[in-house]
């Protein structure tokens, strides 16, 4: 099966563009950035709580880098249910970081807050195709 999700192209000033999609976490809409350079799917550690995530997080043994930061301690949790278009994913492991610096930068240029980043772990697993011309993310999956 295949699902097609429209994305918005966000201009982040002289630094380029980001691609934003909406997905659903436990029946609530969330804004995420598509990031092919991110190795893992990441959500904001504080914001994930509003989606009914477990309040107890496990710490990762390794430090995380990227997302405009040096290295930082990271945690992980298991998302009970995430829906991207018609694709429903259960028990998906996500990394949790403090994304407040990203949201502060977004606010400064008048962009909406993000809840997370869709990383290559998910994009690769679901054979993602980013169609820039049609502004659509295409994912393939077995039913």
- What series of H and E elements makes up the topology? EEEEEEEEHEHEE
Tally of contiguous helical segments: 2
Number of strands: 11
- Category from helices, strands and their pairing: mainly beta
Which class in CATH terms?
Mainly Beta
Task: Please identify which CATH superfamily we are dealing with.
Answer: Acid Proteases
- Report the principal-axis shape: globular
- Major pleated sheet: 6 strands, mixed, barrel
Distance between the amino and carboxyl termini: 7 Å
What is the fold named in CATH at topology level? Answer: Cathepsin D, subunit A, domain 1
Our estimate of the beta-strand percent is over 45%
Using the 3D structure, state the CATH architecture: Beta Barrel
The portion of residues assigned to helices is 10-25%
The pLDDT mean sits at: 89
Radius of gyration: 15 Å
Strand order of the largest sheet: 3-4-9-5-8-7
**Unreliable runs, pLDDT <50, ≥5 residues?**
none
Count of structural domains: 1
Task: Characterize this entry briefly.
This protein has 143 residues and is mainly beta.
General description of the model:
It is a single chain. By secondary structure, this protein is mainly beta. The protein has one domain (2-140): Cathepsin D, subunit A, domain 1 (Beta Barrel). 10% of the residues lie in helices and 52% in strands. It has 2 helices and 11 strands, in the order ββββββββαβαββ. The strands form 2 sheets. The protein has a 6-stranded mixed β-barrel. The protein is globular. It starts with a strand and ends with a strand. The model has no long low-confidence stretch (mean pLDDT 89).
């Amino acid at each position: 099966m295949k699902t097609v999700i429209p994305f918005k192209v966000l201009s982040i000033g002289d630094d380029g563009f980001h691609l934003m999609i909406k997905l659903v976490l436990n029946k609530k809409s969330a804004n995420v950035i598509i990031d092919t350079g991110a190795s893992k799917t990441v959500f904001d550690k504080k914001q994930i709580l509003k989606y009914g995530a477990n309040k107890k997080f496990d710490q990762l043994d390794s430090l995380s880098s990227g997302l405009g930061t040096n290295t930082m301690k990271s945690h992980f949790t298991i998302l009970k249910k995430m829906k991207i278009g018609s694709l429903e994913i259960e028990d998906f492991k996500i990394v949790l970081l403090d994304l407040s610096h990203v949201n502060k930068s977004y606010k400064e240029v008048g962009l909406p807050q993000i809840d997370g980043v869709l990383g290559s772990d998910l994009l690769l697993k679901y054979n993602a195709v980013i169609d820039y011309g049609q502004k659509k993310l295409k994912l393939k999956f077995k039913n």
